[in-house]
Amino acid sequence: MEVDVAVAFHIESSNGFTPEWKEMEDLIVVHSTHTLVCNGITENDIEDGSYLKPVSISALKQNGLLQSLAAGGDQTEADEVDLELERAQQEWDALESIQPVPAEELAPSPLISFNEALQHFQTTDLANLLRNIQPTVRRTGLAVVTHFLFGPPRLHRELTEERDLVFAIAQCPLDNTQPVHMRVLQTIYRKLTCTKADCPRYGPHWENIGFQGTDPSTDLRGTGFLALMHTLYLVMDPETLPLARDIYKLSQHPVQNFPFSVMSINLTRIVLHALREEVLTKECNRRQQVVSVLNEVYVATFLHLYEVWRSQRKTISDSGHVLKDVELYVKKNPKQLLKHLHCYLQERCSGIGHRTSPDLLSHGNRSLGDGASYSQSHGDKEGKINFTGVCELPPEMEGEARLI
């Protein structure tokens, strides 16, 4: 069924008659005297006052009007779609490719024990580090004779390899490419702060456990990875973990605070010098061990410092003098130091000693249970002295303790 369509404009002639609409067989006439206005409407038709009568759809189809309108609309829409796709493709190409994170990287790394970490160094080639160690103090002249006659006994030959391993670990830096190194670092942080998730390798959170900056490796000069091994032993041994958290809690005290990890590194330096000066040789020979003796001396030294710091209400301004006194005490009384540690651990296991619940330890809890008595005797304007990196002491100064 055909429908008539009326063209929009209507021109009435002067005589009122409707002229016949002339069909155009060819829409484009090059040599025509008439100029096409729209689909066959000429200028003469408009000048003569002719108007259009209703035109059927079939006529419009023949003239190509509908086809041209439809084709033009589709082309415009297609061009717009192409532009949108091109713009979207450009935006997508500008984005960085996002790689999916493996599920195992989202899970916390497993805690590592001291023995597992030690086994890693026992099976690692440390030949380059062993060439640079200094396991004993180099003496000359009369000092050699005096040490031979009145000094401590020599270390048994079968223990020299284990002793050299200790000094080699002290030369080993923290390596980001070693999974064992990263697990040791994460284990120390999680055990001290009672958190379950791993923390970023770099960041200010390391200051929470007493490092000086965003990278713990910068504080390990002079003691190397051995300092982290000692802290790992302290926090992973079930008997010494409560002590570690007590010391860590004291390090967060508003008045008596000190950087836990840097203080621990200084104590590692002290016991390492005691081993080099052969102060611990007698105990090592008696027990036929070096690593375990050194670990216990380190814990006993930390316990001694903790009790002095806590009972005498020391602050960070006293750190230099305290460390010097601690080093002298360790070198003169290693046997009494270890005996006191054993008594302390036995009393703690039996419930006699002071006990701190791990659940009560948090970042927000920065005061001791009896911290009020400490804060009464100290002003709030206590100056703070920043610990700096620890390095090896020159041979002529090995008898002295100092903060560098």
From TrEMBL:
UniProt superkingdom: Eukaryota
PROSITE patterns in UniProt: ELMO
Pfam families in the record: ELMO_CED12
Stretches for region Disordered: 360-381
Segments forming domain ELMO: 180-334
Protein's name in the database: ELMO domain-containing protein
Native organism: Silurus meridionalis
